[in-house]
Amino acid sequence: MSNSINRRSWLRQSALAFVGMHIAPAILSRDLHNSKSDSTDNIILLNSNENAYGPSPLARKAILESYLNSNRYPDDYVPLLKKKLAAHWNVSVENILLGAGASEIIGLICQLAAKEKGHIITTEPSYKVWNAQASSFGLSFKRSAFPKKNDASVASLFGPVSSDTRMIYICNPNNPTGTVLDTKEVQAYALQVPKQTLVVIDEAYAEYAQLETLAPIAVTSPNVIVTKTFSKIYGLAGARVGYAIANPALIKALSAFQPWPDSNVSMVSVNAAMASLDDNAFVNDCREKVNKGKQICYSTFDTLGSEYIPSSTNFILFNIDKIKKNLTYEMSLRNIEVQFREHFGGKWCRVSIGTIEEMQTFTGALKEIAAN
Hints:
With about 375 residues, this protein is of the alpha/beta class.
């Protein structure tokens, strides 16, 4: 595939469908990423952990077939997605709440946790997009150091819970380290947390790691919530579809913070998500290609003597202390976007795994920058 494969190119081409549905087969049958009329097409986006291969073919087809119904509210479609998710995870429809990405769901959980002032236990580093929202609700943070290696127990990481602990956030696999906590340990820890403290298990990258979900304990526990998303391996980051799995009482409490429960997701996005769940071949193919892309990076890091953390996800955190130049700036000059991080007392870069061709371009650029 061309290096220009990205969401902007696909969305521009898909927009042609508004001329009439009769051209949809033609769009679907050709390479959607060859146009180079937009100067941003050649930017390689390796900074947001998106799926460079998504949306899946089935999701694209569903989007094109459903956009004409965008004048209708999603309430006829939302129950279909919830029913499909319930069957997928072997839970009940009452155990699911939809939101505009998992970040919205975590924000709702923070609102619920903030009914009484207190703190959130999490780790450093970990996923932080929702942290400012939690702080705005009056919640504070207690952070423990997340190790570069999987040599700490879950109990030691998240520690004891006090009467002021309102919520515990566990990102597994962890972002940005890409490492995995033992699910049995996470389960044992979550089940012994006092019931007045919410336990959030963020499984955004679980499909990449092929982790067993902890949804079964969420639906039977009064305080455990699993959050999941279609933004990662399913390639629907722009469609904004996330969801919570929890017991019905918690789902009801969380839905009270939504003006219209479950309907922050558009009708088109709902159809795309349903189609994505059916495309197992696409998911498996993406996982395989991402693993190949990671190997390309590991080989380059080894050659350069750069420390890195082996990842179970679609991104890698690697150390850039030895690189004299500003790596993110130098990469941007080459139309490559990566993310700078300060962790573990040093300078790091989190690179998302794009297509094989994109990773070859990235590693070539990295060698060039490191050599100067």
